[in-house]
Specification:
Length: 298
Amino acid sequence: MCRSAAAVLTALLCAARLCAAGRNQPLNYRPIIGVLAQENLPDDQYAHGFSYIAASYVKYLEGAGARVVPVRLLLPGGDVDIQTSQYSRAAKIFYDLALKANDAGDYFPIWGTCQGFQQLSVLTANKNLLTLTNTKAVALPLTLTPATQSSRLFRSFPKDLLQSLAEENITANFHKWSLSLQNYSRNAKLKRFYKVLSTNNDGKKEFISTMEAHRYPFYAVQWHPEKTPFEWVDKPGMTHSPAAIRASFYTSSFFVSEAMKNQHHFSSLVEEERALIYNFSPVFRGMNSIFIQNYYFD
Ligand SMILES: *[C@@H]1O[C@H](CO)[C@@H](O)[C@H](O)[C@H]1NC(C)=O
Ligand SMILES: *[C@@H]1O[C@H](CO)[C@@H](O)[C@H](O)[C@H]1NC(C)=O
């Protein structure tokens, strides 16, 4: 899958009765976002415990005004299969809870990046429709669809930024699996659930690079907005141009503004403090690492 995953999810770590959110709630200016840890990679010499979160995801959200709670995996995994890993099981729990919450009028956004994108497609289709593409380290311009204009995600982006996204090679792709436009189009569940906001092409297959759900505040990007400002490995596909950094910020700012519509909170400030990522320290993994810093969890 992606060596760089993470689904980002708003925290739901509170008792249901504390979570009841009415309409016309004021925005929650103290949003807390849960980020799902993943099984450690077997070749990670810096790893301890059994799961990790790349610090870039944390900085990305913090930079847009959110605090992060790591959602740690409960069992040692060592398996990164998209249908059987602890990561995928945890993602399914959040996905199901978020569907239920939103159906009950409780705004519960989910964001999936890279493996998070792939995971969302598997959860919605209830099967793995991914296909191999030649996209392991390449920066691409997005081919924006007409749906972009009316999308929640891109609607608020400045015109010149959308133009940069469409014309410059500023979205970082580090994946070998993709959801092709063909498989998406042939799957009724996916088509009903998501609208395609952008596609890309590896020369052979057209794949979906950005999508959002029609009826749920669920968003998925196959590219890596969190890498451009926060990862520094010198590799094809890594880009740090001002437009790339701005695009990154607009995605995180958008998602944090979605999280602000959610009123979930911990049952006490003590519980909140115990759960926040500040209780952990990231490990510096060297300038040539795909993740410059990781958080590790036992
Ligand atoms: C469609 O999905 C199947 C798995 O169900 C996969 O084997 C195949 O490569 C995919 N085809 C394309 C064009 O994405
Ligand atoms: C920019 O993206 C296009 C695909 O739209 C690709 O053909 C081209 O090789 C890329 N250029 C660089 C420098 O990566």
